[in-house]
Amino acid sequence: MTRKPNILFMMPDQQRADMLGSYGDPCARTKTTDWLASEGLQFENCFCQAPLCMPSRASMLSERYVRDHGVFQNVARVHDTVPTFAQALQSAGYHTAQIGKTHFYTHLPWPGGHMNDQAGILHHYGFTETHETAGKEASLRVDSLYTDYLKEHGLLDEYRTYLTSRNKHVLEENPGMEAAKAWNADPLPLPLHAHQDVWVGDYAADWIRDYDREEPFFLQVCFAGPHDPWDAPEEALDEYGTPEITMPDSFEPPEMPQSGPLATFLEVLTDYCDTDTMTPEAIRKARRAYQANTMMIDQSMGRIIEALREKGQLDNTWIVYVSDHGEMMGEHRMVKKMVFYDPSVRVPMIIRPPGGTGPRKIDEIVELSDISTTFRDIAGADLPSSQFQSLLPAFDGKSVAKEVAISEAYGVAMFRTATLKLVVYEDTGEAMQFFNLEEDPLEDRNLVLSGGAEDEIEVMMARYVRPFFKIRPIRPARTLIERGSMAKNSFFLPGDVFVR
Question: Domains in the chain, start-ordered, CATH in brackets?
């Protein structure tokens, strides 16, 4: 019997789609990603289920929308009774392995804690083999195979000092240190080999070279970057160079109403982004560092794929590239994510089948969590009555278009069609933002505030919003609006600090 194909799943954290070469940014240095796009399908309008790490990843893991799995914030995890795509792949005969940052559960600090101590969580979720690292800020207080590597090379203290200066919450424990702004992009003062995204790439390439089991493998490789802090070392910045950086299309802050949910939502987030002190020059520096980190990840992916080639498995392996959410990077004078503008919720998705195929761009709307159902389909596993779909029909030229993409976080939900976007406050169903994307692709004119779009909003409410909420009555434990009234000066409350 012919062996099933392997699946290599690579996912950076917070990778904005239109800052990749194949998605149109001339400043990108992304040879590997561009090659994948040249031999596969590139989805131009893929939207994540949450502009926040854990809710988005929980949707991929569980193949459920946020309201159905209940992980609304970065302080919960998918319940043990919920089936996962990785369990289905195990049942289909795959050896499932994970390397890097999963962020399927909270990486809160615990005395002497090591990521290996939590391997049982990932085993339960369906990963036979785990080599997990924490995210950048979580690595301040949680050890992992990566921090073991830094410690072995005498670099851990310097790394954690750097991270401390970029987390204003940690600075409360370090009087006298000045917190970096949200848009700060000072380089990591470590050699290139010591950067987590380089380490993860090398570790994954070695794993592939050493793989000698009979079963096909599903290997999930998750990078910590280009999530903030934008920490490309000087060596990477020098290699990236000084091109004319592509700047934000719209640097004006979002329209701010006098009161109401949208006012609180934007007040909290613009404070979190240090919008009032952000300058074009600061964003230019941040974008250069972000692109340098993206280049590093792209190079790591290249080494992983080369290991497949050396192993003779390149033409027997599906290669999938996505990100969990996007990055504002100066659009509307904001950074990071957690808002529902396209730079934050639109994500890259590229799928290369074994042996490759002619390059093709798919303009239809799809959702990020469709990829998990696609994994099931590739593996020949049972397809559940999922809220998502397999994308394999697209390889036969069939439509995989969805009428609407849905994204949720912190008690706010987005409903996006090909031409319209509606953002609502879930507690009341109140419209917060409405954009006509054909007339206003940069999302500068919020028609909720200017008026005149009430009929269109009502059509969206009746067609998408009310039916979605009616069959999904779960309410977030703490909405962003409530959080705003509790923590005006900080988006993160105690307990959230180390889990981004």
Answer: 6-269+279-402 (3.40.720.10)
